Amino acid sequence: MTLFTTILAFLCSLGPLIIFHELGHYTVARLCGVKVLRFSLGFGKVIWSRRFGADQTEWVISILPLGGYVRMLDDRDPGTRALSEADQAREYTRKSVWQRIAIVAAGPVANFLLAIAVFGGLYMVGMDEIGTRVRGMEASTPAYQAGLRGGDRIVAVNGAPVATYAELRWETLKAVLDKGGVRFDVAQQGGARYSATLPPAALAGKNVEGDLLGELGISTFLSPVTIGKIPDPAGPAGRAGMQPGDRVLSIDGQAVPDGAALMKLVGQSCGRTLQFVIERGGRSLSLTVTPELNKATNISRINAQIISSPEMVKVTLGPLDAIAAGAATTWQQSVMSLKMIGKMVTGQVSLANLTGVVTIADYAGKTARLGPIEFLSFIAVVSVSLGVMNLLPIPVLDGGLLLYYSLEVLTGRPLPGRIVELAQYAGMALLVMLMGLALFNDVNRLTQPAPTPPANTYIRCPND
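== Zinc metalloprotease ==
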């Protein structure tokens, strides 16, 4: 069932994005007076086709649903050459260079417009997101040394307001990529305000590919610990007499403010008996719990569900503000994608970050199981990525064609056919290599062992 959900979610996410992209090309081509012969979802063998409209455009579904194309009258292709005088006026290469630029650019632009519409719609409906209140941090972390304190709420990063943890991470990531410092504007619970500044030196060498905020010592505020389900009555929690709904107050005399603190204390026990103080029905009780150690994973546990949720905020905007926020989010993600690509090209970021259809399918399935809001957010993100990818100046992509036409605008004449042909071969080879690398990264990511969880986040026994 999980595999079926993943495949269905992948098709339901990528399919509409491809259709929307190709509809951009199709619509502008028709507006420019170009005759469209075929609109295809997918490549390869045609498995369904119908003809519609005055031009009897063929609408088809092909066997490989990993892209699509719009075939127009084009004298460069013997199979689509304009034969009649009427058709010659509607042939693609006879249109002005600006019309050809508009037709090619319409595909990526359609993806950006779709992302703006989806993001904007989500902001209008309202999205529950993790807030910017931070939990307590170690004194050795850069954030603590800069003056940030647990329980306070970050309200701006370098002057840019932030209301959600995602915005906080985004603005911090931008500052790190720009090799600048970070100034956090912070609000305390009583209303007082202060600033905590991290200089560029404190950010140097931080991993932009992983948990950047975690490396700085920043993590989201969590609610006090409540015990959820106890799956095995014979497990440590069950034997000790724990019950669902118990609130954990302390362990061995140390206060337990949230789930992360509980996991750290249990992880450090390595099977040693612990004294839990819990609250049940308004009374405090003391329970003796001996965590069990899984020798295969070196992780200890009490075998109970730990409920400790992040603080959530609901972001709801009016129509105009929502569309503006959607446009801003789309722009930010596009810029960040280009920066990441640039850093991969220059070697500043590992090529292991390049992902392909397998990872897209995996995340499509995961977000679909989380709910419609998460799934639609994922679709918008992929739409932005699809638009950015197609604008890269690689022959055979839209960006490659835009590069040709830009040179035509500058020189006043089209590039020689032989140069275009050689560029197409080189572009195809590069694209195949990138797809192969992305597939390798996808498979490697899914098959490699899970990374060792950090002791301050998961229940883990340190090695002797």
